[in-house]
């Protein structure tokens, strides 16, 4: 039996990478593969996840951020686990686990190494020295990588243009969402949406703008607060609801800085820090529009989710957006850091509610067709079969 091992730093039901990896593990188990998972410090599966038959190795030293002492221990731990259990394939996810996992697989003599790129590790907004360092590390790891999977075409082209991988060694498999999720969104009663809005503000005339994001500096949520400030200066009765928590938890200082900015702009009555929500799709559907101000992304899941719930979104230009949004039809894309451009688009949506609703409806039609879980899993299983057959581990 072919043994496929996945390696990820955070296997968390709150994250799209965690949910996507869980769905892949279950699909591989269903296909008859032996499946195992090495997971780092953040191991928080959903209560209803069925992990029976999937061997779990918990490696607390495998953390998300750079930590040299722990990274050395994690590399040693990964190598020992892989040498002991000898999988035929390892499949790594995310930047840190991708680097350490692939190096450990090479040291342990694992025959086949795959890696999924969920987002850019060397975005142009980083200082040049960091870009060069991360790009160099990716090039080193690419020498031991047999196949790359990307969540978007633009992300793949960035890696090819950087000389990290060749086109023939790559695939694009988009993030999938389950069909029942679409049905559940459509079944949300108006009373529930009204209750969510009332829990945020009692102002019936408020134009509610939602931000769904972990509270981390690269998400640039201070931009969203500044955009709200501009909107209110222009007479738009806008409120901003920020759903998300610091990730990792140590980044609470960033949340504190956002609260200080809110207070300094006298926006405390209009900026609502909601924290992490389990009901994120109902929350998004209760908004009038969504906003994304990240400095970089891979293929932004919040844009997909905004489309699923039928709400327009205004976004700063980042990697992958042109694959998701038809500018002016299913959302708006403005240049990175263009507060006034984002403000103008949100103001137009607020003043033209019928157009706002129509844009959300068009986005829903596009996203539900493109981002289907069954399609994603079928493409992954097909890739595994072709990959293993080409490498001589399976016969046709």
Descriptive keywords:
Rossmann fold, alpha/beta, 2 domains, six-stranded parallel β-sheet, seven-stranded parallel β-sheet, globular, 396 residues, 13 strands
Topology summary:
Elements: E1 3-12, H1 16-30, E2 34-44, E3 54-58, H2 68-85, E4 89-93, H3 95-108, E5 112-117, H4 128-142, E6 147-150, H5 153-161, E7 170-172, H6 179-186, H7 190-200, E8 207-212, H8 221-233, E9 238-243, H9 252-264, E10 271-273, H10 280-286, E11 289-292, H11 301-308, E12 313-316, E13 332-334, H12 339-351, H13 353-370, H14 373-390
Parallel strand pairs: 1-2, 1-4, 2-3, 4-5, 5-6, 6-7, 8-9, 8-11, 9-10, 11-12, 12-13
Helix pairs in contact: 2-3, 7-10, 8-12, 11-13
Structure write-up:
With 396 residues, the protein is an alpha/beta fold. It has two domains: 3-176 and 372-390, Glycogen Phosphorylase B (Rossmann fold, 3-Layer(aba) Sandwich); 179-370, Rossmann fold. Helices cover 45% and strands 18% of the residues. The protein contains 14 helices and 13 strands. Strands 3-2-1-4-5-6-7 form a seven-stranded parallel beta sheet, sandwiched between helices. The chain has a six-stranded parallel beta sheet with strand order 10-9-8-11-12-13, with helices on both faces. The model has no long low-confidence stretch (mean pLDDT 93).
């Amino acid at each position: 039996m072919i043994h496929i091992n996945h390696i990820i730093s955070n296997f968390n039901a709150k994250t799209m990478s965690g949910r996507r990896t869980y769905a892949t593990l279950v699909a591989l188990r269903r296909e008859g593969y032996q499946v195992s998972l090495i997971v780092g410090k953040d191991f928080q599966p959903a209560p209803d996840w069925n992990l029976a038959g999937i061997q779990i190795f918990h490696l607390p030293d495998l953390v998300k951020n750079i930590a040299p002492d722990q990274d050395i221990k994690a590399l040693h731990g990964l190598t020992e686990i892989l040498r002991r259990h000898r999988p035929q394939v390892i499949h790594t996810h995310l930047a840190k686990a991708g680097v350490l996992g692939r190096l450990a697989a090479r040291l342990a003599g694992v025959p086949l190494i795959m890696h999924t790129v969920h987002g850019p590790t060397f975005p142009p907004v980083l200082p040049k020295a960091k870009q060069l360092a991360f790009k160099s590390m990716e090039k080193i790891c690419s020498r031991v990588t047999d196949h790359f999977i990307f969540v978007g075409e633009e992300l793949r082209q960035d890696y090819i243009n950087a000389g990290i991988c060749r086109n023939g060694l790559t695939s694009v498999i988009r993030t999938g969402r389950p069909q029942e999720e679409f049905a559940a969104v459509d079944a949300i009663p108006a009373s529930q949406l009204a209750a969510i809005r009332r829990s945020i503000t009692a102002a019936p005339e408020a134009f509610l703008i939602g931000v769904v994001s972990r509270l981390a500096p690269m998400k640039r949520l201070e931009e969203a607060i500044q955009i709200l400030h501009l909107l209110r200066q222009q007479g738009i009765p806008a409120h901003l609801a920020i759903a998300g928590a610091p990730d990792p938890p140590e980044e609470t200082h960033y949340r504190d800085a956002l609260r200080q900015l809110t207070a300094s702009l006298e926006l405390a009555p209009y900026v609502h820090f909601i924290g992490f929500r389990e009901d994120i799709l109902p929350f998004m559907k209760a908004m009038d529009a969504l906003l994304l101000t990240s400095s970089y992304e891979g293929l932004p899941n919040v844009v997909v989710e905004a489309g699923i719930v039928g709400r327009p979104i205004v976004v700063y230009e980042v990697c992958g957006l042109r694959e998701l949004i038809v500018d002016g039809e299913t959302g708006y894309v403005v240049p990175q850091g263009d507060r006034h451009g984002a403000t103008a688009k949100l103001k137009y949506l607020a003043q033209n509610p019928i157009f706002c609703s129509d844009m959300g409806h068009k986005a829903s039609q596009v996203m539900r067709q493109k981002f289907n879980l069954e399609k994603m899993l079928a493409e992954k299983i097909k890739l595994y079969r072709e990959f293993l057959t080409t490498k001589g581990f399976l016969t046709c």
